[in-house]
Amino acid sequence: MGKGFDEYAENYDAWFLANPNVLHSEAALVASTLRDAGRVLSVGCGSGLFEKILRDDYGIIVADGIEPSEGMAAIARKRGVNVIATVTAEEADFGDGVYDTILFNGTPSYISDLDAVVKKAHKALRPGGRIVLIDVPKESGYGIMYNLAKALGTWEHPLLEGVFPPDPYPMEFVNVANWRTTAEKVRLLTEAGFKDLSFAQTLTTHPLYSENRPEEPSEGCDRGDYVAITAWK
Fold it and tell me: Is the pTM of this model over 0.85?
């Protein structure tokens, strides 16, 4: 799946840069989960856009990344990310007791066998390490909207008229995603042996208004369209 992002690498950055308040809100959420993160691996680092923002704006270093799209990986390397492999999360070797934090920012919905990948991440973490899963929950406003657009195959449909933001997430990314509920991700984490789960969220307004202003993260998972789950080994 990830290799299909090659031809859309520039579109990915262009969408975020055209929606700077959404980008700020999501980056602030990611940063809030990475305090004292130690050595971090970003699984599905994409173009390295978030990693650059984390470094430049928050002083958080995410040195290593895995990214299956060659086009995305090339951009990430230019931004200073050490892309150690251009393979999918399922194919990747995370190592054994190597990392303090393994970050999945926006990527769980694009990983087919998330169960196996979460278990592999547990093995790759040092004792006391953390996993961070961040994406759009299936049950959220964005999740429901995206699934409707995916089912219809377009944003331009009467059922979606007046519902989606002026610059919606590109259909090429919507079509290949598989959003999961927060409860599903909690189950996968606990079955893999993770504990002490905590939740943070952002984009708590209706999707129509997410770009109106930047938002700082808050605790919980009951209102946000972008939710972070942190769990510990």
Answer: yes
- Looking at per-residue pLDDT, the higher value among 2 and 152 belongs to 152
Closest CA to 160 of 172, 174, 146: 146
Contact 101, 129 (CB under 8 A): yes
DSSP β-bridge partners for residue 200 = 219, 228
Considering Cα of 119, then 123, then 127, then 130, what sign does the dihedral take? negative
SS3 of 120-189: HHHHHEEEEEEEEEEECCCCCHHHHHHHHHHHHCCCCCHHHCCCCCCCCCCHHHHCCCCCCCHHHHHHHH
Does residue 3 surpass a pLDDT of 50? no
Backbone angles phi, psi at 186, to 5 degrees: -60, -45
Question: In DSSP terms, which residues pair with 99 in a beta bridge?
Answer: 125
Nearest-angstrom CA–CA distance, 64 and 51: 10
